[in-house]
UniProtKB/TrEMBL annotation:
Gene3D superfamilies: Ribonuclease Z/Hydroxyacylglutathione hydrolase-like. It comes from the Bacteria. This is Metallohydrolase. InterPro entries: Metallo-B-lactamas, RibonucZ/Hydroxyglut_hydro, WalJ/YycJ-like. GO terms for molecular function: hydrolase activity. Signal peptide: none annotated. Pfam families: Lactamase_B_2. Keywords: Hydrolase. Coiled coil: none annotated. Residues 12-190 form the Metallo-beta-lactamase domain. SUPFAM superfamilies: Metallo-hydrolase/oxidoreductase.
Length: 266
């Protein structure tokens, strides 16, 4: 059994907690150390229990609290070399024993969790998504993705829980307040997935084992939680998925954690 909570999600900061009976990890720690401690406390998990922090990419909204938490709680930090190159200066010194470098596609064992990285497309040095396995239970995380190819779909497939980016509503982004170059960046292959793209992707990766889907990294300016949920739900229902019966579909928040949720492969 593995349980997880999206502690915070969006351009103001991202952190996902995944926990088994033998390990507690964070995927990204993009808020201040104090904010992450508070979010963890809210779901009843002590930051003392952290056994590792895995980083997807070096953008501030994913690494802001990495250095502080690593130093304060003596937690090893895992990232690929190019992500280390990109974040080293902003997160401050990480002591030798807590500096863990992997090669993208490696699988790292920590307690009874196996954490596998896979390459994604985004405007950073070497961004990755992660699959976290505990026994045969699988949790997949894909955010900050400009587009998704068959390889990425392969990694996300057959998951018990899926945390997937639904960044923007395309129409809201088009008519919204962002400057042109930023709109282009978000819509590009190195930007972010729209609600529509998330819905279409989900129709290809949901399986009989899927129990819960969380929509993540929602834009504050170019999306609304209800709109993201409705758009994705409609796309899934058009493909005959029974949302709310076969699996739950939930949104995530920039400023509050989702309920700690347990998943287990039947
Ligand atoms: Zn981000
Ligand atoms: Zn990013």
């Amino acid at each position: 059994m593995v349980q997880y909570s999206v502690l915070a999600s969006g351009s103001s900061g991202n952190a996902i907690l995944v926990q088994s009976d033998k390990a507690t990890i964070l995927i990204d720690a993009g808020l201040s150390g104090r904010q992450i401690e508070a979010a963890m406390a809210e779901i009843g998990v002590s930051a003392d229990s952290l056994s590792g922090i895995f980083v997807t990419h070096e953008h501030q909204d994913h690494v802001k609290g990495v250095g502080v938490l690593s130093r304060r709680y003596k937690v090893p930090v895992f990232a690929n070399q190019r992500t280390w190159d990109g974040m080293e200066r902003s997160i401050g010194e990480i002591k030798a024993g807590f500096y863990e470098r992997f090669t993208t596609n490696d699988q790292i064992e920590i307690g009874n969790l196996a954490v596998k990285s896979f390459p994604i497309s985004h405007d950073s040095n070497e961004p990755v998504g992660y699959c976290v396995l505990c026994g045969n239970t699988k949790l997949s995380i894909g955010t900050d993705m400009g587009y998704v190819n068959d390889k990425i779909k392969g990694f996300l497939m057959d998951s018990d829980a899926i945390i997937i980016e639904a960044n923007h509503d395309i129409d809201m982004l088009r008519v919204g307040p962002y400057p042109w170059h930023l709109k282009q960046r978000i819509l590009s292959d190195h930007g972010h997935l729209s609600n529509e793209a998330a819905g279409e992707l989900l129709t290809e990766i949901i399986s009989a084992n899927t129990k819960c889907i969380h929509l993540a990294h929602l834009s504050k300016e170019n999306n609304l939680p209800q709109l993201a949920h409705l758009t994705v739900k409609s796309i899934l229902e058009e493909e005959q998925f029974k949302v709310g019966q076969e699996f739950d579909l939930e949104v995530t928040y920039p400023d509050k954690p989702t309920k700690l949720r347990a998943v287990k492969r039947r």
